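Supplementary Methods. Inverse-folding protocol.

Structures were first reduced to a discrete structure-token string of length 327. This string, shown here, constituted the complete conditioning input.
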């Protein structure tokens, strides 16, 4: 009997051990299963652009715009690149030059069933140091159809072979040692039109916008002083000596309205020519014989001279200053 009971106990203990082992295996299996990754992607997922560091940028024309976009679901998503609403590339990366100007770059991620998301960036592309550029004077960029205008403060015009207005080639001349461009506007409807400069290798450069219109050009002059001031060698016009620099900038036009019978010009307070910096006898005084208007297109040198030589004078003898304006 004792032997029988002993066998029963051993059997029960063995059965308990087996059950415990099974339970442990089941528990371990369950834990392992819970830790297994469970991940599925499909074309039905919403597309996402994963980049967290996208930012506006500025670069010059000769520097390629480079960017890589990370998207999900990767295998079901296509990336397109739109510059000012025109597609310029497709794929997750871009590495190419962009035209000069301020642009809106839109990056669009689209799944195979048409779901989309996008990011928008501002990209500013500046001219390279040796690119041709035009001045920006509003008065010079206002012209009647078929008429001519001269645009000052230009750079690197020696490379220009063609000038286009609204895509139409126009007659042009390069003047003033390559710093001015004279162009003839085509017969167009009143409106604002793009100027394009094309170099000898066929590369096109934006030249800003010109207004071609039959409307009369509005007066853009600001009167700085008006009255009667008799100029003599001992009494130069010095009313604007300390205030003119507040208005003076390169490309602006200083006009001096005079009348009389004498000679003179606009100078710094050191009596040096406003445009050249030269003094008497090379100052370049202008003869006055009745009413006249003197025009001085200010340059960077003019601003430097006015700053270093204590402001503006109008010097000479035998005439009267009637009005001084700036445009």
């Amino acid at each position: 009997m004792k032997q029988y009971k002993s066998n029963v106990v051993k059997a029960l203990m063995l059965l308990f051990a087996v059950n415990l082992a099974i339970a442990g295996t089941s528990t371990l299996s369950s834990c392992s299963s819970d830790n297994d990754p469970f991940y599925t992607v499909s074309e039905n997922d919403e597309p996402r652009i994963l980049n967290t560091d996208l930012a506006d940028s500025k670069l010059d024309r000769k520097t390629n715009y480079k960017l890589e976009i990370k998207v999900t679901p990767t295998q079901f998503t296509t990336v397109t690149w739109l510059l000012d609403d025109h597609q310029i590339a497709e794929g997750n990366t871009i590495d190419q030059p962009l035209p000069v100007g301020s642009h809106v770059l839109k990056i669009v991620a689209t799944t195979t069933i048409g779901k989309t998301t996008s990011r928008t960036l501002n990209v500013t592309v500046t001219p390279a140091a040796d690119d041709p550029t035009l001045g920006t004077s509003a008065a010079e960029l206002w012209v009647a159809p078929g008429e001519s205008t001269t645009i000052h403060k230009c750079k690197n015009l020696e490379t220009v072979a063609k000038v286009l207005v609204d895509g139409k080639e126009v007659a042009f001349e390069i003047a003033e040692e390559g710093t001015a461009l004279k162009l003839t506007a085509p017969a167009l409807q009143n409106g604002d039109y793009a100027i394009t400069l094309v170099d000898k290798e066929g590369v096109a450069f934006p030249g800003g916008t010109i207004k071609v219109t039959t409307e009369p050009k509005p007066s853009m002059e600001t009167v700085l002083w008006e009255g009667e001031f008799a100029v003599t060698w001992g009494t130069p016009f010095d009313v604007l000596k300390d205030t003119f620099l507040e208005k003076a900038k390169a490309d602006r036009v200083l006009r001096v309205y005079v009348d009389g019978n004498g000679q003179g010009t606009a100078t710094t307070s050191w009596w040096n020519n406003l445009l050249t910096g030269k003094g008497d006898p090379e100052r370049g005084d202008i003869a006055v014989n009745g009413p006249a208007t003197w025009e001085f297109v200010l340059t960077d040198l003019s601003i430097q001279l006015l700053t270093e030589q204590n402001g503006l004078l109008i010097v000479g003898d035998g005439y009267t200053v009637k009005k001084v304006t700036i445009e």
